[in-house]
Amino acid sequence: MLSMAGRICLIKSVLSSLPVYYMSSFLMPKGVCNLLTSIQRRFLWSGVAKQKKICKVQWRFVVKARKEGGLGLGSLMSKNISMLFKWIWRLNLPDHALWKQVTTHFYSPTFENGIPKLHGHISPFWKDVLSILDPNSVIGLVLRENIKFKIGDGSSILFWSDVWIGSNALRSIFPKLYQISTFRNGLVNGMGQWVNDQWRWNLVWRRKLLSYEEQQYHHLLSMLEPTIIRQGKDDKLIWSCNSDGSFSVKSCCTLIDNTSSATDKVFEANVWIKGAPPKVQVFLWLAVQDKVSTRAFLHQRTVLSATQASCVFCSSNLETSEHLFIHCNFSRSVWMKVLDWWGIQCCLPRTIDLLLLQWPEMVHGKFQRSAWRLISSSTIWGIWLLRNKIVFEEGTINLFDCFFTILHRVAIWLHSQDSNFNYTGNDLLRSSDGIKLWCNKKS
Ligand SMILES: [Zn+2]
Predict the structure, then answer these.
(1) Final residue belonging to a domain, choices 49, 77, 105
(2) Residues 31 and 150 occupy one common structural domain
(3) 142 in the same domain as 51
């Protein structure tokens, strides 16, 4: 049976990739998208496509990027939309691909802030492609908001309608001025002239400006003041999700997936700990959300009765993630042993995400922090494995064994990262000096 980390890998490389050709050419019907998503969801949580199991985290969170609290799977809908949006983006680029020549010949497209308007009888393909930019849909709005221009000589940017200064089109910032402008569809380079190598703005109005319009005009001029028009340099369409302004399907997917819903937790390097095995990283991801199959979790989902929901270690408290990994007397003594071994005295934070957040701050230096993070993940993983051993294999509580296996695992993980790390679990058990020495040597 594959671990969850293995299943995530398979979903990314196989299940999400199989329909790529279709998704890059057609808008997937909602029913098909839902069906494929349900196959992915069942495979993630149960390991097979047809068996239903508890979905521990909502799919809209699972698809989000890792730093946003998800598993970075990306939704099929966002991939489909991003791939179709790429056609629109490429239509704007100044090359002469055959498909573009054909499209231009048939539809004579006109552009407003990078959004094409096609004329004549539009094919179902282009209807699908253009439908993703529907200004009445959230996704359409988000996509539109991220298209901007970087000004060059201003010869291809519409002064009032394109977004080239600030984050909105000037006509939406100054609607009154737009209404009385003589050149509503004028280009930027048509709104002024060069005088002695200096660009001078020259906006022309249909009538004399009223006093409040004068004020707006001065505001507009102050916005235009810092703009530098560069003669002989092309204007450039910018995709603001990428720092270099280029468009990529990946950045578009991330944008859409992160738009669809907000997460209330911050996940960073503290959950996806470098050097920890993927299955441990995924486990921590579940643990900070209290979605590990503890007895309290299974009781909530009516798998276990209330009498079966008490902690495996102490039998006197509800076995929630926080109790099992932090507050239980046994777990607390494991953490204290780890802290004592490293030579740190402190109180444990209240929650798992706070623990993972504050843990690296207890030590100094990049490599010590990195090793110290591994120790926290090994401790949580060690407590979980011991708990499972007691539940499924009639194991017994043994603080020393638990502590030793935590150090043993850390030694293996560090060795797999750096073959110069030659300390064994036994070496680490004697003292934490070896690991500290190795960290200091590296920094
Ligand atoms: Zn307990």
Answers:
(1) 77
(2) no
(3) no
Rounded distance from Cα 55 to ligand 1 centre (Å): 26
Q: Are 422 and 415 in contact (CB under 8 A)?
A: yes
How far does the centroid of ligand 1 lie from the alpha carbon of residue 301, in Å? 20
Residue 261 in this model has a pLDDT that exceeds 60: no
Report CA(322)–ligand 1 centroid distance (Å): 10
Instruction: Quote the CA–CA distance of 33 and 15 in Å, as a whole number.
Output: 12
CA of 278 to the centre of ligand 1 (A): 27
* 69/84 same-domain check: no
Whether residue 270 lies inside any domain: the answer is: no
Written as one letter, the residue type at 178 is: Y
How many structural domains does the chain have? 3
Question: By C-alpha distance, which of 230, 181, 187, 234 is closest to 204?
Answer: 181
Is there a single domain that holds both residue 402 and residue 431? Answer: yes
Report the separation in Å between the CA atom of 331 and the middle of ligand 1, taken as the mean of its atom positions: 8
DSSP, res 326: I
pTM for this model (two decimals): 0.77
318 CA → ligand 1 middle, Å = 7
Confidence label for 299 from pLDDT (cuts 50, 70 and 90): very high
